[in-house]
Amino acid sequence: NDHLYFVGRSGEMIKTAGANVAPREVETVLMSYDDISEAAVVGVADSGLGQKVVAIVVPTKGTEVIDEENLILRLRQDLSSYKVPKRFIYVGADELPRTSGGKIKKAEILKMPEVLEQA
User: pTM for the full model?
Assistant: First the structure.
C-alpha cells in the first residue's frame, strides 16, 4: 500500500550490514516463543557489520536450557536473515537493568559485561 511503517523508536534502530533492524520486532518474535519470557535486542559495534544484532534473553521459568540451534532455525522462519541475532546472552529476569516503572534500560544493557564481551 506504498506506506512504510517503523516499529519502535528510530533512535534504537540497529544498522547491520547496510540494513536496518527494529529491535522491537525481533523482541516481539523472541517473546512469542514458549521458552522465552523476556528479550531485549541491542546493536553492538562490529568492525565488519557496523553493528551486530545481539539478543539478551530471559528463559521462561522452568526452562533449563534453550536449544540455540533450534532457536535460530525458528527465528529464520519468522524474520529476514539479517534480523536474526548473531549472539544470544541468557540471563535471569533480575539481571536486566530496569527503570522504576519496570521498563528495560537498553543503555545500561550495553554496559553489561556479557554484552561488552561481544564487542
Answer: 0.87
